[in-house]
Every structure is written in structure tokens, then in C-alpha cells.
Write a structure and sequence with these properties.
Blueprint: E1 4-6, E2 8-12, H1 16-27, E3 31-35, H2 44-48, E4 56-59, H3 61-68, H4 74-80, E5 83-85, E6 87-92, E7 97-102, E8 110-114, H5 115-128, E9 132-135, E10 138-144, E11 149-154, E12 159-164, E13 167-170, H6 177-183, E14 189-204, E15 207-209, E16 212-214, E17 221-226, E18 231-236, E19 242-249, H7 250-255, H8 259-269, H9 274-277, H10 279-288, E20 292-300, E21 303-304, E22 308-310, H11 325-342, E23 348-350, H12 357-387, H13 393-408, H14 416-421, H15 427-465, H16 476-502, H17 504-511
Domain FAD-binding: 8-337
Enzyme class: oxidoreductase
Keywords: FAD, Flavoprotein, Membrane, Mitochondrion, Mitochondrion outer membrane, Monooxygenase, NADP, Oxidoreductase, Pyridine nucleotide biosynthesis, Transmembrane, Transmembrane helix
């Protein structure tokens, strides 16, 4: 006898990506079981424990678009308490001279949002939906993917409990247990890379003026103190404080091992930040907050048959320098559900199978793996850009030229940052476009360099030889020879620059 029932999805991980996915699945009529390892973060005693974890995040168009597509006004709620950041503020030299670098010539901005508040909002919303059940303190221990069974360690006693689902989604972060279960079943390509840089969070309190809190720095900027091998950044919080993150190689963290060394190190590198953070608080935070490691994880495929799929950091963890980890994870969810729509996947199980799901999951992997890899590489490249390139005159001139051409010929050139942060263009296409644009930009720069050099040489020559005598008649062959040699030189200059740009991302990644 044939049997039809409502499909159940188990989502492992109630972080940002898992809880958004629960809302999407509930919207399409599935029965949703969301399993989270930690206790409910909304409980007062849990809030205290969150100190020292990355507390604010840059939310940009990809993330916003995924929130918007729920149709639940989540975007408005989160943006209500977000702080817009229109530009980078680069703090240069010992005296901290500030240089504002707008993110977009059209005034677009990214948003500093409170990570915990966003997660709580998503959990609140998921919990409101009648077809969602959230199981806190459920740690996935193992899964039999073929049978759809999962064993969890539950509560403080870690007693074992077995649960079932028709589809299991791993949204359990960079060290995903679900991914490990899938790797036992399929030939999943897997790469992980730690970078030498770690991070530590520091708190910059509001400045009190007439008992009123004010921001210690301009709030509409993402502040960066780039120092080549290391850097400090600061993102604004709605309560007028900033969360600062110190990124530096682990051996530097080890060398800065006493209060005196820390103060001397800050005086040398981030002197203007000391009075804003406060010496005592700086010492306190630096020595008591955890040091985080930064990992890149690439996987392929992201799915197993019609049984399982991984999303968010579980599928693609990246270093945080493009501010895209969560944005990319949110976009995973939007893309995933578009693929389910395109394959007309219904929330029903007929004779233990969901019609078309295997094909849909394969299509999702096909579409998303290349984009996940692309943003992992770009995030690594931005590590170099943030800690170093933002201080280089060549880099700034190039950015100005890019921005200027984009203003007048937006179809010809769109800056990479805009494609990544202010659009939903697939990341792999953004990289492809960037390479094409770089070629033409370098042709222009090469031609400009050749013209300027030739003009200067001509002026110098004339100054040495005196004013020109009437020009002798030149044969057309001589003229076309001169023109083609000029073009060749321009092309050579362009080619050399293009090659260096082409290898920039990978060499920066290696250097990082
Ligand atoms: P996670 O947030 O890691 O959530 C995974 C969840 O799964 C957790 O709740 C965990 O408790 C749970 N879990 C784990 N194992 C199990 C298990 N076995 N069973 C059940 N549950 C389990 N991204 C941005 O877009 N913008 C930024 O500005 C930005 N800044 C960052 C700054 C720093 C310093 C760092 C480290 C990251 C930053 N990111 C940023 C990246 C962003 O934090 C991550 O990409 C995002 O949190 C990924 O969400 P996720 O839900 O996939 O994973």
C-alpha cells in the first residue's frame, strides 16, 4: 500500500544559517526539527557567556536579500538597530592620521549588526512557526544518512537520543560533525587551511559627554589600523561602543606577553586607540579574551544523494576579511530554496522518497560549490588588501580610476568590492568580471604610461636640441611602423600589469 506524509527536515545547528534555513523550510510547508548543541542563547544566564566572541558582523546585500526573501520583514527589524558603514577609515602612522575611503561612489553601505541579536531574531521567528520545533542542548554525535537516523547527546547528562528525518541539513559550522558523517559516505573533496594570523576582541566604550554616551570614533566607518603583518579594526555597535578586533600572527601574540609589552606595542602601532579603549580595559580584554584561529574550508560536493546537504560554514568556512561568511551562508539558503522551487520539490514523502530531491540537491552543489570556493579565495585576498594595500598610493589611484569609470560607464567597470558587497551576482562571476575589467583597466593605464613617457621624452629632447625644424616628409611605412611599435609597448606594459594582477589574488593568498 502506498504511503504519503509531510516531509521532515532535520537542521543541525541553530546558528545564523541554520535558523534562517528553518524559517525557509517552514515557509515551504515542511516539518522542521532544529537541533542546537548549546543551550538557548536567549536565556539571561547564556547572554553573559557570549563575551569575547565576535559580537558584531557586517551584513551586506547578499545577506539582506536572503532575509528579505522570507517575506517576514526580518530585514527591517535588523536594520532598525544596525549602524551603516559607508567607508573605511584608515588610521595611518603613529599619530593615527585618518583617511576616509568610501566603499561606493553611489553612497552604498554595509551594516554593522549585533550577531546575537540577529541570531535571537531568527530563533524567535522560527519558534513562532507552528511547524518548527527547536531542540537545544542536542549535540549531533553520529548519523546514518541512508536511514535518515541521527544520534544526539542530549542535555547536561549527555544521554543518547535517536531521531529521524527525510532530509538532514548540516549547518553546524566550520568544524561540522555533519560534514564528517557525509565524508564517510561519499568521495567529498575537502581542503582546510589555517592562516598564521589569529584574533582577539577588545571593547571600546562610549565616551560620556554630559552623561550622554557618544561614539569615540566616527560611527559610519569601519575603522582599520593597517600595519602590514597585523591590524586592528573597529566596528560600531548601536549602544555607541565599538568592538575592536586585533588580528596578528600567533607568535606576535605570544611575544606580547606582559602588561608593559602590550602598552609598548599599542603605543608603537595603535597609539590613538589607547585612550579610546582605556589602558586598564585594554590589558583586561587582551589577557582574558580568547584568541581565535582563522580557517578556510572548501568542500565538494555539498550534498549526498537525496539524504543530506551542508550549508554555511559547514560547507565553506572563510577568513573574515571580506565580511562575507554569514552573507554567503544566508545566500546559500536563498539559492538552495530557489533550486528546490525550480525542481518543484513538494513537502511530501511518497513511499519513503521525495520526488526529484536527488536531482535538486545535485543541481544545488553544481551551482554553489564554485561560488563558495570563489569567495573563500577572495576573502584571503582581502586579508592582504586590508592590512597592507589600503595604504599604497598605487592601490588608491587604481581604486579612484575604477570608481570614476564606474560612475560614468557603470556597465564597463564595477569595482570588485561593489560586486561582492552590494550585489547578489554569483561570486565566481564577480571574480571573472574582475579579471576582465583588470585587463582593460591595465590597457588604459599602460597606454597612459606610454603616452606620458613619450611626451616627457619629447619635451626633454626638444629642450636639449632646440626648436624643431620643419618636419621632413615621412613615408607611410615609417609612420605605421612607429604607431605599431608604440602600440606594442602599450600592450606589453598592459600585459605585464595584467599578469601581476591575475596572480595577485593567489600570491596574496600564499603570502597570507
Ligand atoms: P555558526 O555560526 O558556527 O553556527 C553553527 C551552529 O551549530 C552553532 O550554533 C553551534 O553551536 C552548532 N553546532 C555545532 N556543532 C553541532 C553539533 N554537533 N550538533 C548540533 N549543533 C552543533 N561574516 C559576515 O558575513 N560578516 C562579518 O562581518 C563577519 N565577521 C566575522 C568576524 C570574525 C572574527 C569571525 C570569526 C567570523 C566572521 N564572519 C563574518 C563569519 C560568520 O561568523 C560565519 O560565517 C557565520 O557565523 C556562519 O554561520 P553558520 O550558522 O554557518 O555557523
Amino acid at each position: 500500500m502506498s504511503e504519503t506524509k509531510i516531509a521532515t527536515v532535520a537542521i543541525i545547528g541553530g546558528g545564523l544559517v541554520g535558523s534562517l534555513n528553518a524559517i525557509y523550510f517552514a515557509n515551504r510547508g515542511w516539518k522542521v526539527d532544529l537541533y542546537e548543541l548549546r543551550p538557548d542563547m536567549r536565556l539571561p544566564e547564556q547572554k553573559k557567556l557570549q563575551r569575547g566572541k565576535s559580537i558584531n558582523l557586517a551584513l551586506s546585500e547578499r545577506g539582506l536579500s536572503a532575509l528579505r526573501a522570507t517575506g517576514l520583514d526580518l530585514e527591517t527589524v535588523i536594520l532598525d538597530s544596525a549602524v551603516p558603514m559607508h567607508s573605511r577609515m584608515v588610521h595611518l602612522g603613529k599619530e593615527g592620521r585618518q583617511m576616509s575611503q568610501p566603499y561606493s561612489i553611489h553612497g552604498e553601505h554595509i551594516n554593522a549588526v549585533d550577531r546575537a541579536r540577529l541570531n535571537e531574531l531568527l530563533l524567535d521567528q522560527a519558534e513562532k512557526m507552528s511547524n518548527v520545533t527547536i531542540y537545544f542542548e542536542h549535540q549531533l554525535h553520529q548519523a546514518d544518512l541512508k536511514k535518515g537516523s541521527m544520534v544526539f547527546f542530549q542535555g547536561e547528562t549527555k544521554s543518547e537520543v535517536t531521531k529521524y528525518a527525510d532530509l538532514i541539513v548540516g549547518a553546524d559550522g566550520a568544524y561540522s560533525k555533519m560534514r564528517a558523517q557525509m565524508m564517510r559516505k561519499i568521495r567529498m573533496d575537502y581542503q582546510q587551511q589555517y592562516i598564521d594570523t589569529g584574533y582577539c576582541e577588545l571593547y571600546m566604550p562610549p565616551v560620556m559627554v554630559n552623561d550622554q554616551p557618544h561614539y569615540a570614533l566616527d560611527p559610519n566607518h569601519l575603522h582599520i589600523w593597517p600595519r602590514h603583518t597585523h591590524m586592528l579594526i573597529a566596528l560600531p555597535n548601536p549602544d555607541k561602543s565599538f568592538t575592536c578586533t586585533l588580528f596578528m600572527p600567533f607568535d606576535m601574540f605570544e611575544n606580547v606577553s606582559s602588561k608593559q609589552k602590550l602598552i609598548a606595542f599599542f603605543q608603537e602601532n595603535f597609539n590613538d586607540a589607547i585612550p579610546l579603549i582605556g589602558e586598564d580595559r585594554l590589558v583586561d580584554d587582551y589577557f582574558s579574551n580568547p584568541r581565535g584561529a582563522l580557517i578556510t574550508v572548501k568542500t565538494s560536493p555539498h550534498h549526498y544523494s537525496d539524504k543530506a546537504v551542508i550549508v554555511g560554514d559547514a560547507a565553506h568556512a572563510m577568513v573574515p576579511f571580506y565580511g562575507q561568511g554569514m552573507n554567503c551562508g544566508f545566500q546559500d539558503i536563498q539559492v538552495f530554496h530557489k533550486v528546490l522551487d525550480a525542481h518543484n520539490i513538494k513537502p511530501t514523502v511518497h513511499n519513503n522518497s521525495i520526488s526529484g530531491l536527488a536531482t535538486a540537491l545535485a543541481a544545488y552543489s553544481d551551482e554553489r560549490v564554485k561560488d563558495a570556493h570563489a569567495i573563500c579565495d577572495l576573502a584571503m585576498y582581502n586579508h592582504y588588501e586590508m592590512r597592507s594595500a589600503v595604504t599604497s598610493t598605487r592601490f588608491l589611484a587604481r581604486k579612484k580610476l575604477e570608481g570614476w569609470i564606474h560612475l560614468y560607464l557603470p556597465k564597463l567597470i564595477t569595482p570588485l568590492y561593489s560586486m561582492v558587497s552590494f550585489s547578489t551576482l554569483p561570486y565566481s562571476q564577480a571574480i571573472r568580471r574582475w579579471h576582465q575589467q583588470s585587463f582593460w583597466l591595465n590597457v588604459v593605464l599602460g597606454a597612459a604610461a606610454v603616452t606620458t613617457t613619450s611626451a616627457t621624452a619629447w619635451v626633454v629632447y626638444r629642450m636639449v636640441r632646440g626648436p624643431p625644424s620643419p618636419p621632413p616628409r615621412q613615408s607611410s611605412a615609417a609612420i605605421s611602423g612607429a604607431v605599431s611599435s608604440g602600440l606594442k609597448t602599450a600592450a606589453n606594459v598592459a600585459n605585464t600589469s595584467v599578469q601581476s594582477i591575475g596572480s595577485l589574488a593567489s600570491s596574496a593568498a600564499n603570502a597570507a
